[in-house]
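Chapter review. Work through the record for PP2C family protein-serine/threonine phosphatase before attempting the end-of-chapter questions.
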Amino acid sequence: MNRFVTAERALRKAAPHQLLDAVRRVLGEQYGADSVELLLADYGLTVLQPVPAPPCTRAPVPVHGSPAGRAFGAQEPVVETLPGGRARVHLPVTVRGDRLGVLSVALADRDRPPGCLAELADIAEVLGHEVVVAERDTDLYLRARRKERLTLAAEMQWQLLPGRSCSRPEFDLGAQLEPAYTIFGDNFDWSADAERLVLYVSNGMGEGIDASLLTNLAVNALRNARRAGIGIDDQAALADQAVYAHYRGRSYLSVLMFDFELATGRAKVVDAGSPRLLRLRRGSVQRVTFDAQLPLGMFEETDYEVQEFRAEPGDRLVFVSDGVHSVSSPEGEAYGEAALSRAILATRLLPAAEVPRAILRELGGHRGRPAADDDALVVCLDWHGR
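C-alpha cells for PP2C family protein-serine/threonine phosphatase:
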C-alpha cells in the first residue's frame, strides 16, 4: 500500500475532532514529518489560525507577508527553509476552489522521499474534504476560524453562506463580507450543476439580528423554490410572498439573481432592487444596469420579469452592496463608481477569490477608520466559458 493511500484511509477513519491527530501520525510514520499544523483562515481573511489541538505551538500567522499566507493566496505549495537542513512545506487546504487554510509540515530536507511534495499536496486536499464533512459533527474547526467572538447575527449569516470561493472549468467565484465578525444583512448564495450556475447577491434592510432573520427567511425561500426546479422569476415571486407574509411590508430585501447557462454564458436575470454590478471586459470597466423591480417583500404578490444578459469568456463581473459604493471618506466623499472602477482595474491580475478581500482593503483606506457603519459585500465572478 503506498503512502498516499495510507494517509487517505487514516483520515477517512478518524473521528471528526481527531483529523489533525490522524494526519500528524501518518505524516510522521510515512514521510518523517516532525511537526504538522493545520491553519484555517479566519472570517476576516487576515490571519491563519492554528487548529487548537495539542501540541499546537504556533501563534496565528498573518495572511500577508508569511510563507503560509503565500501558499494560501497563490494556492500553490511553498517551501520554507529552516535551520539545520530542515524544511517546512505549506500546502493549500482547498475544497473545489473554497480556500479553507494551509497544512504546514516540517520535514528533514535531506530525508524527503521522492514525489513527497505532490503527495503531500494531495493529502492536504483530502484533509480539506474531511474538514468540511467533520464540521457537521464538531465545532472544533469553526472555533479555530475565529480570532474574536462573532455576534449572533454574524453567526447566522456565515452559517447561511455556501462558502467563500468556488472553481469550475467554466468560472471562478470569490466573495467576502465585512465587518466579518459583526455582519447582519448582506448575503450571497450560489449553486452549480452540469449545465447551470445560479447566483444571488442580496442586501437585507435593518440591523443586527432583525436583518439576519430577514435574510435567512428570504435566502431559504429562494433555495426552496430553486430546489423545486422553478425558474428565477418564480423563485423571486415565491420568496417575495414568503417575506411579505411574515413582515407585511415592514421589512424587505434587495436581491440580484442570475441563472447562467454554462455552455453559452447566456443568463436570465431578475433585478429586485439590486446591489450593483460592474463588468471588466477587455481592460475597460462598465456598470451593467437592469430594469429595477421591487425588492422582495415590499408589496403583496409582486410579479417579476426576467431580463437577458450574456457573459463572454474573459469577463470579470464584480457585484457590490451599498455598503461599498456609498461609503464616505472622513471628508464626506462617497467611494462611488469611479473609485470602485479603479479598484477593479488595480486587482485585474488577482484570481477571483482574492479580489473581494483586496477591494475591501481599498475601501477601508477610503473610509479612514477601522469600524464600518454598514455591511460591505463584494462578489467576483470570472467567466471562462466552455
